[in-house]
Design brief:
Blueprint lengths: L2 H24 L5 H12 L7 H8 L3 H13 L3 E5 L7 E5 L1 H10 L3 H8 L3 H22 L13 E3 L5 E3 L5 E2 L15
Antiparallel strand pairs: 1-2, 3-4, 4-5
């Protein structure tokens, strides 16, 4: 298949999702980029909840992310706290209000409708194909993967069935391994 067609399809899907997102976010006074940051923060782990990680994940400038975080903070959707060990590091957490907003808007209505009219096998195949394409783009271009801990090279299972991060040497809970990490490395 022609790579141009693949790009056009991805851009058209992105355009439709962005259009829906802009429309739905308008009532909350948010832009899609601000919501993207909020969504990332809901799904990232404690090693990846910094402005720097948000910047890397979104692939934007530090200034754009900083302004987005300020807006999210002013709306009570994000809270800032200083790191306990290194006061130069700021951690970002999502308030209950922010979590409820994300839950109410994700997944997109466009995709919910597709899911309702598609088989589970078709949806699984689509997710697998898109996941594979994303991994290839990341690998070939040297981008960080930002994957879930459960698929990370650093994630290990101890003899007692508990997980721990081989990089940080810290224990990981069952919910922890489902979060995305800035330090993720494919297995």
């Amino acid at each position: 298949m022609n790579i141009l067609i693949i790009q056009q399809l991805i851009e058209r899907l992105s355009s439709l999702l962005r259009s829906e997102s802009r429309h739905r976010l308008a009532e909350f006074g948010l832009q899609p980029i601000q919501f993207d940051a909020l969504c990332y923060l809901v799904s990232c782990n404690r090693y990846s909840d910094t402005p720097k990680a948000v910047t890397e994940f979104l692939g934007l400038t530090k200034g754009t992310v900083s302004q987005s975080i300020k807006i999210l903070e002013s709306k009570g959707l994000v809270l800032k706290t200083a790191d306990k060990l290194d006061k130069r590091v700021t951690h970002l957490s999502v308030s209950e209000q922010g979590k409820k907003l994300v839950e109410s808007l994700i997944p997109a209505e466009l995709l919910k409708l597709v899911s309702e009219h598609s088989s589970k096998d078709d949806m699984r195949a689509t997710a697998d194909l898109l996941g594979s394409l994303l991994r290839q783009v990341q690998d070939v271009n040297g981008f960080k993967s930002f994957g879930q801990c459960q698929t990370c090279h650093h994630n290990h299972t101890k003899g007692d069935g508990h997980y721990y991060c081989g990089l940080t040497k810290e224990r990981l809970s069952n919910p922890d391994i489902l979060l995305i990490c800035v330090e993720h490395k494919m297995q």
